[in-house]
Amino acid sequence: MTSSLHVTHGAEKPAPRWTNWLDLGDRALAVLLLAPAGILLALIIVYPVLKLGYTSLFSLSLTSGLPAKFVGLDNYRLMLEDPVFWETTWNTVLITLITVPGALLMGLALALLANLPFRTQWPVRLSLLIPWALPLSFAGLIFAWFFHSEYGVVNDVLNRLGFEGIIWFNSPNWAFAAICLTIIWKTSSFMALIILAGLQTIPRSLYEAADVDGAGRIRQFFEITLPLLKPAIVVALIFRTITALQTFDIPYMMTGGGPGTSTATLAMYIHQNTVSFLDLGYGSALAVVMFALSMVVTVIYLRAIRTKD
């Protein structure tokens, strides 16, 4: 009798049902932990993109006073026949092709300079932060003054060197060159900061071993520094290329897209249609194209990384 009572009292009680939720597999736990982030991304990224694509299928102009009308792909057909769309898209691509490599080369040089063993490195590294910290519109205003034909710093320097000043913003080519120089100056510090972070991860022992083997500085750069900097360079290129495709502030503040539309970008044309003309349908279609361009560039970079790895 005693032993049966002992067995009865010693038997384990079944675990409460709620404790089964705590005993999750690795995959279920990962899904549970990532669910809040996934929901947040869906709310702030996926839904707006889907809404943008949906709006692009309608004729929706707030100035017409007419209700929204489903037109399918008519906005995209209109886009193909729009010369301003092609001009602004070409300007955007050209700015990307010029400023991204220019900012990369200048950023790499600045990062290598900031990584030198100075006794006091903070002034050099602080100088990298100043262009990056400036708002884009403020940088555009500063360089609009620099390139002013009458009292700008650039023409003053040219005159002191014996050259004739240039009317920068009356010529499409000179205005475009001024914009590209400004963007390179503004964005090279961002590239430099990312590349400098990559330089800090390279073990010093590799350079010491290369010195023992008799490798010079140039050989060390091409055989040690550049290969190990590839992940940082690719990350910098992805971010810089996407922001280059979305260029708006600097050309808007420097030239307003002029003369004519020779320096207008796709982002500026989207702004004009949606904010100035209140044509939300056509503006949404333009924005979908810019989003698609950004995604194509990102996929190309990622596939290039995967292929090389």
- Count the helices. How many? 13
**What is the overall shape?**
flat
**Rg, Å, rounded:** 28 Å
Distance between the termini: 73 Å
Mean pLDDT: 86
**Helicity, as a percent range:** over 70%
Strand order within the widest sheet?
1-2
Number of beta strands: 2
Low-confidence sequence ranges: 1-8
Order of helices and strands: HHEEHHHHHHHHHHH
Q: Structural class of the helix and strand makeup?
A: mainly alpha
Question: Which range does the strand content fall in?
Answer: under 5%
Major sheet size, sense and barrel closure: 2 strands, antiparallel
What does this structure look like?
- This protein has 13 helices and 2 strands, in the order H-H-E-E-H-H-H-H-H-H-H-H-H-H-H.
- It has helices at residues 2-10, 26-55, 74-80, 83-114, 122-133, 136-146, 153-160, 172-200, 204-212, 217-245, 249-254, 266-276, 280-308, and strands at 58-59, 69-70.
- It has a two-stranded antiparallel ribbon with strand order 1-2.
Question: Could you give a short description of this structure?
Answer:
This protein has 309 residues and is mainly α. Helices cover 72% and strands 1% of the residues. 26% of the residues are buried.
Secondary-structure blueprint:
Blueprint (H helix, E strand, L loop, with lengths): L1 H9 L15 H30 L2 E2 L9 E2 L3 H7 L2 H32 L7 H12 L2 H11 L6 H8 L11 H29 L3 H9 L4 H29 L3 H6 L11 H11 L3 H29 L1
Antiparallel strand pairs: 1-2
